[in-house]
């Protein structure tokens, strides 16, 4: 076999051609509930971003900045350039600090390159207080997988969908001599540092936080965002309730601080939220009686009638008939004499004192 030769690369595109290609591989809209939606099928390289970055910020990014949450759809993203990774991550990373997100080893040049978020970006960064959901499928591969992995490890995004393909960061197609045979092999790999360097998505893919078939992740993402939008209000009400009602006063400041600093990045449902709140609040307070519950109204059920027995100022409903009074007592109390002349009295609730007096 003759030496392997790189396959011929496509000629450089004009700015008009790059813009046309960009518009076919990217789309956006604002969904119901003020949720921004951005679909990217091919991630452009740094050269394209340098030339068309201002256009993207003005005509795409600014339209999504006012949304309350963002859905990044990478289900059909099968191509991309390593140089664009810091660019995309930077728009979802808070300003003021830079983050080392990856180190790339390139075999042909035998070099490593560190990828850091950008200290400055065109336009604005997406607020760290807003949720980001990334949609994936078994077709998500390459650079898109690295972006998904980084955002997941950062705790910046909830990944919804299927396990990604588990491809390679950079593939090169080599011609075998002058024949019509080609060999495709990975020539670059991700070395971390996110994940400690020992973990990798290459070959195995990125597992979603919430698994769902390829056709359903958008609906699932919107369902996840619904309870998360209510989080600030829920936390505020919990803090107010603890301040006003909790009897262990010395523990209130610690509980308030916990609620203010708690990490909810893994919460994807009401059940998750309730479980996390109970586990953390009870651990800090050392009080198993401190309990959070989610109460859901029954669908199509009539409004409950107001209770009058315990209402202030309401007369207790005690029948005047003796037989009816006996039946009422028997419904509230169980009385018997057990073997050995042992008396047994059971009641499951404390009756109102005025009822007891009348009976």
TrEMBL record:
Keywords: Receptor. It holds the Pfam family Peptidase_S41. It comes from the Eukaryota. SUPFAM superfamilies: ClpP/crotonase (SSF52096). Residues 14-213 form the Tail specific protease domain. One of its GO terms (biological process) is proteolysis. The keyword Metal-binding does not apply. Residues 296-317 are annotated as: Disordered. GO terms for molecular function: retinol binding; serine-type peptidase activity. Gene3D superfamilies: 2-enoyl-CoA Hydratase, Chain A, domain 1, 3.30.750.44. One of its GO terms (cellular component) is cone matrix sheath. PANTHER family: INTERPHOTORECEPTOR RETINOID-BINDING PROTEIN (PTHR11261), RETINOL-BINDING PROTEIN 3 (PTHR11261:SF3). This is Interphotoreceptor retinoid binding protein. It comes from Loxodonta africana. The lineage of its organism: Eukaryota, Metazoa, Chordata, Craniata, Vertebrata.
């Amino acid at each position: 076999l003759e030496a392997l030769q790189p396959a011929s690369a496509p000629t450089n595109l004009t700015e008009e051609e790059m813009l046309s290609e960009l518009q076919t591989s990217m789309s956006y809209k604002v969904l119901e509930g003020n949720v921004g939606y951005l679909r990217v099928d091919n991630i452009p390289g740094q050269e394209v971003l340098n030339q068309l970055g201002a256009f993207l910020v003005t005509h795409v990014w600014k339209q999504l900045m006012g949304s309350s949450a963002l859905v990044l759809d990478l289900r059909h993203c099968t191509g991309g350039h390593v140089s664009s990774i810091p660019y995309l991550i930077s728009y979802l990373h808070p300003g003021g600090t830079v983050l080392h997100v990856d180190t790339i080893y390139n075999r042909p040049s035998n070099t490593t390159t560190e990828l850091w978020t950008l200290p400055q970006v065109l336009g604005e960064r997406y607020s760290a207080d807003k949720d980001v959901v990334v949609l994936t499928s078994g077709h998500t591969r390459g650079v898109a997988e690295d972006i998904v992995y980084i955002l997941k490890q950062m705790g910046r995004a909830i990944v919804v969908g299927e396990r990604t393909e588990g491809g390679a960061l950079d593939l090169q197609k080599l011609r075998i001599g002058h024949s019509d045979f080609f060999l495709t092999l990975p020539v670059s790999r991700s070395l971390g540092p996110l994940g400690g360097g020992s973990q990798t998505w290459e070959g195995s893919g990125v597992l979603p936080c919430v698994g769902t078939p390829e056709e359903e992740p958008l609906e699932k993402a919107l369902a996840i965002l619904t309870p998360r939008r209510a989080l600030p209000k829920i936390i505020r009400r919990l803090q107010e309730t603890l301040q006003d009602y909790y009897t262990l006063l010395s523990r209130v400041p610690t509980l308030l601080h916990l609620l203010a600093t708690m990490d909810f990045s893994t919460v994807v449902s009401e059940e998750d939220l309730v479980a996390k709140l109970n586990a953390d609040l009870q651990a800090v307070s050392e009080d198993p009686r401190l309990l959070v519950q989610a109460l859901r109204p029954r669908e199509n059920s009539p409004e409950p009638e107001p209770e009058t027995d315990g209402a202030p100022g309401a007369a207790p409903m005690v029948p005047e008939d003796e037989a009816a009074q006996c039946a009422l007592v028997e419904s509230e109390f169980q009385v018997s004499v057990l073997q050995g002349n042992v008396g047994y009295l059971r009641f499951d609730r404390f009756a109102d004192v005025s009822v007891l007096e009348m009976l």
